[in-house]
Amino acid sequence: MRIYASKLKLLTLPLALIILTWHLYNSKDSQLTIKSLDGILYIQRNVSTEMHDEQFCVCYQFLEATETFREDGLEPITLAVHGSPEVLGEIENKPFNWDGPISFGLFIDFHSQHALNYISMLHKCHADFRRKTTVHFAFRISPSQTECPVIYTSGYKDCVTFFQKNTELLEEMEDPFQIYPINLMRNIARRGAKSDLHLIVDTDMVMSTNFAKMVKPVANRMIDGMNKQVLVVRRFETNETELPLNLDELEQGLLNENTFEFHHSFFFVGHQIPNLSEWFENSYASEETTAWEIPYTGSDWEVQIILHRNDPYNIEYFPSRVRDMQSLIYKLCRANYTFNLLSHVFNVHKGIKEDDTMYSKVVTAHTKQFWKMRTLSRYTAEIDKQYPDTTTRCGPFTI
User: Fold this and answer.
1) Which of 73, 261, 307, 322 falls between 20 and 30 A from 142, CA-CA?
2) Which residues form the signal peptide (predicted)?
């Protein structure tokens, strides 16, 4: 499909403050010229996208971090996060909680495409965000599309205007009207990362103080993409107003029963890591962050891990909320990886989950109904073929 410049339309938010013109060009010679709207808007850049799996268009390193974090000669750990436009407020605050590189995969569609304008302005105007954060994006193409489009982004001429309207713009963000491809976005964040060590996290997890610096030495010693080791991070949840971000605060929160192990009353089997008291003892015994091997507990397990760029990636055909992370952890087990629990560091979720939202239940029921058996049979066949000798080590994989 070709849309000529004379037929282009501006997609304007109710506030008429930011736009993104998204048009498909089959000709490389196509040109676009748009004058500013009341002196506020201007075309910042155009961006090429590439086809992925004949379903998605992807742009890697749409926005690039300016710092490498290699001043000590060690490979930094990238916080590999992902999300849709609704998480932009959380992403904006990530640089305050992570002193290292951040790689963010953003999923959009026609209804949410103006999120690219917002994050472009954030990257331009927020010095710490620009210093640490690299941004990628992806969207699902229509069945009739055979090529990926050039994307045009727009923004304010000055940062003062952007910061004045920041909250208002976030409130107007729309999420894509489709099921979120969670494993694709995790992989995009990893593939586009600016370092070789990756911590895969969701945007709503807050890291303990100095996490990146404390883990960097042990991660460089243990993870090289060849020795088949990953590092495991303990997770917690709290209803405290002030999140516990160091060992003393965490221990006090657990004693006061305001803080708990992650999802302790909702699918704890997927997140449980035994011997919490031993973990505290080891963490208090030394100032140096260490790690020790812990056993794989079964196909329900979806622990948070640090791994190497060369290590396995999430299985993208797994639907969201149906063993999407467990499938990677199980694959690592079948590939003879060991899981090593980190001392000292952890992350926290604000709020305690006791049940799924109705939306989540509907999505899970839908994806299980249509994809459960097809996904399971394909996955188990692939794993058994690739790793035929480790079935006993890891047990069967179930959905």
Assistant:
1) 322
2) 1-27
Measure the CA–CA gap between 398 and 262, rounded to whole angstroms. 22
Joined together, the tokens standing for residue 214 give: 């404390």
Whether 101 has a pLDDT exceeding 80, the answer reads: yes
Residue 21, strand partner residues: 152
The CA-atom distances, in angstroms, between 305 and each of 97, 150, 183, 198, 219 are 18, 35, 15, 8, 11
Kindly report the length of the chain. Answer: 399
Residue 351, pLDDT score: 84
Weakest mean pLDDT among 26-35, 77-86, 203-212, 264-273:
26-35
Q: Residue 43 has what pLDDT?
A: 52
Written as one string, the DSSP assignment of 34-93 is ---STTTEEEEEEEE-EEETTTEEEEEEEE--S----TTSSPPEEEEEEE-GGGHHHHHH
Distances (CA, A) of 180 to 16, 81, 249, 317: 28, 14, 35, 12
The helix/strand/coil state of 135 is strand
